[in-house]
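User: Before I run my own analysis I want an independent prediction to cross-check against. Here's the chain; please return only the structure tokens and, at the end, one sentence I can use as a sanity check.
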Amino acid sequence: MNADKNNLKISKSQDLKVYNIEALPEAAQALLSLIGDHKVVAFYGTMGAGKTTLIKALCAAMGIGATVNSPTFSLVNEYRRPTGEPVYHFDFYRINKIEEVYDFGYEEYFYSGHLCLIEWPELIEPLLPTGTLKLHINVNADGSRSIMPV
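Assistant: Structure tokens:
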């Protein structure tokens, strides 16, 4: 697959190159196809790479009408798809110790069978379930973003 409209490029290896913010809806649709049946998706990238922005676009592509914000202080936000199915959005940036994740009952979310979208997963790497889809967002010199399965 190679969709290149000066906004988005998708390689055969499912790497996406997003050239501008206008391409996010198309990128989100492509990522939903890649996510498929995965229930836990981990987004890796530096501060400002666009993890939250990408998750907002994914939620919009799923038909979630709620405001999507990074749960930096609450650790998890819950959104609802039009079907009523929950989607959980995590941000572990402010985790000081992995025990904090145990304290809020991460297992109930990660093993719920519902989609979990995780920012800063490297801070809880040992807790990620087998089969987690890991996506890395790179910021390129031209300001575009490359999103690659790891």
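Sanity check: Residues 36-140 form a domain with the Rossmann fold fold (CATH 3.40.50.300).
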